[in-house]
Every structure is written in C-alpha cells, then in structure tokens.
Amino acid sequence: GLAPHPNDSGTLKGYRKTRGGRPQIRPILFMAALSAARCKGPLRHVFQRLIANGKKPIVALTALMRKIVVILNARTRDQLNDLS
After folding, report:
1. What's one GO BP annotation on this UniProt entry (predicted)?
2. Which of 24, 37, 40, 51 would staple 47 via disulfide (CB 3.0–4.6 Å)?
C-alpha cells in the first residue's frame, strides 16, 4: 500500500490500513486510480490483472494508487535531471 499500518492482535492477522502519509493526497490518488481503472490504458490492464489474480477491488485500487505515485516520482526525477 501507500503507507500500510498493521491491524494485528495476538494471533489474528488483520488487514493493513493505509492511514499514514499525507491525508490530503490520498483522496486525489484514489480518484485518479479509479479513473485509470475505468478508462482504456496501461493502468487499466494492471488493475484487471490484479483482479484476475484474486485481489479485492479496493486492494487493486490501492496498488494502482501506489503505481501512480511511483510513475509521478520517476517523471519528477527525470525532469529535475533534465534541468541540470
């Protein structure tokens, strides 16, 4: 996930909650991932592959959110390298 937090107690292994990080950006990334999952493009194929592998839709959307962050970080890095 983006910033997973374990929800474990004793022998119970719960779901990881994405609560860390910047809360203002999470809904923006969620809507971007939702749009990418619905529209044609490479991210839609990633979403469909995750669903086909048995992931729940919300887990697949969280993975898509993280993928968007990785893509944006790489583009920012490349633009900064071009400026120097």
Report:
1. DNA transposition
2. 37
